[in-house]
Design brief:
Radius of gyration: 20 Å
Largest sheet: 4 strands, antiparallel
Distance between the termini: 13 Å
Number of domains: 2
Strand content: 15-25%
CATH superfamily of the largest domain: Jelly Rolls
Low-confidence stretches: 1-7, 136-142
Mean pLDDT: 83
CATH class of the largest domain: Mainly Beta
CATH topology of the largest domain: Jelly Rolls
Shape: globular
Structural class: alpha+beta
Amino acid sequence: MPVFGSSLPPRHELALRDYGHSHGSHAHDHFQVLIGLDGVLDIEVEGRGAGIAAGEAQVVAPGDRHDFSARRHGAVCLVLDTTQPAWARCAERAPPDSAQLHALARYLAQCMKQPRTSALALQHGPALLLEAWSPAPASSSASRRRIDWSLLADWARARWHEPLSVADLAQVACLSPSQFAQRCRDEQGMGAMQWLRSLRLAHARELRLGGMSVAETARRTGYRSPSALTAALRR
C-alpha cells in the first residue's frame, strides 16, 4: 500500500470487491471509499457500526481500525483506495447527492469489466467520485496563505534530531498553531503530528531501501533507538 505523505503525489486504486464474512479488523495508511452496489455490508469503524446498502457509501480515514461483514449472500462494493487528502472533507458526512454517486459507481463498475475500452473513464474515475461526493465550493481560499507542503517537508526532514511540534511547523508556515492544525487536516487529511510521523517514517523507509543500516537510519530520522524504528516499520 502507498505511504500517505505529502511529498508523494496522490495515488488511487479502484476495485470491485465481493465481501463475505469478516476476516478481522485492520487499518490502512490511506483513505478507503466504499460505495454499495449490491447486498448489505456491515461495517464497524473505530467502534461505530453502520450498514452500506446499494446506493450508500462510507469513507474510512487513514489509521481508523475497521471490520467488514456482509449479510446473507454477500455484498458487492466499488472500493477506492486513495491517498488524496481532499477525501478528509468527506469522511464525516454523507454525499450531497447519493443517487448521482451511485449512478457513477455503477458506471465505473461496468467500465472495470471492460478496462481496455474504458481506460479514460477509469483514469478519471477517482476524481469524478470525489467531485460527486464533495462538489467544489465557491473559491474562498484565494486569500488564504498558501502552504508549500513540499518545502515544509524538506525543512522537517533536515531537523529530525529536534523535538518538532505543531507550533514549530506553524511558525515556518507563518500561521497560528490552530490555523496550521486545521489546514493540515483539510489539505493533508490528518493531524499535524500524524503528518509529521508519516513523513519521518517515509524517510526512514527510503533510507532503508537504499541499503542504510537500521541503526544509522534511526539516528538520521530521530528515532529513539533501532528497535523503535523497527517497531514503527512493522506497524
